[in-house]
Fold Demethylmenaquinone methyltransferase.
Amino acid sequence: MQGDKAEHVHEVFSKIARRYDVMNSVLSFQQHRLWRHFAMRQLPLRRDSKILDVAAGTGAWTFSMAKRLGPKGHVTGLDFTEAMLEVAQERLATCPERDRIDFIHGNAMDLPFEDNQFDIATVGFALRNMPSVEKCLQEMLRVVKPGGVVVSLELSKPDSALFRRLYYFYFYKVLPRIGSLVVKDDAPYSWLPESLIDFPNRHQLEQMFVDLGMTKVKSYPLTMGIAALHIGYKALPGQETM
Ligand SMILES: C[S@@+](CC[C@H](N)C(=O)[O-])C[C@H]1O[C@@H](n2cnc3c(N)ncnc32)[C@H](O)[C@@H]1O
């Protein structure tokens, strides 16, 4: 089952890689830019931070984090879909911060890094796609240093029942149609709503961060809970978790 999901996700992103960024903006009415901007403001980013962007895709978040870094900072963008990384690499060639960025092929379920390497590990709009949300967060937590931070920006489920109904109509009925018209294939954008069905809501995901032993865990609903930002810190030795 886990392998099946990963294969399916890989196939979906291989198909839409070239249209991913445009579709993101169209389908979210540009909201994703505001969400990323809000997320950036909550990150404890320093000029010399070492950041891992898990499931970086075409690099949207990787590039914006790199802009905030000084010459000693670095962002590694990791993804398992070659077609998404190809787009990221093309952009990298003309990016002024290119010497602070690397893209690598790898699997979020088994990150190819030693423990305690990064100050910050981010995952943007990708936890939903993972065969195991918990395993992905565990891996991110493993590779950040004690005191380092794990961050997820992801679609979520609105708390208000009335708004949820309206939103789900758009998300489950309208969005897949627009998506399939643009990419001329039903599969990729019928996957998008499917991927949210079994995904934990904001409160459940926050509890998952806590249960994994992170400290100072916080979550923020965005645009009435359509998306959510989650942040948790890796405990320092001897520090109580909460
Ligand atoms: C919706 S895109 C998000 C890309 C980017 N983070 C952003 O914010 O635009 C999801 C990405 O997750 C990647 N992905 C899904 N499962 C993965 C896994 N197990 N390991 C690495 N990448 C994965 C896909 O290849 C895809 O590029």
In short: The longest helix spans residues 161-183.
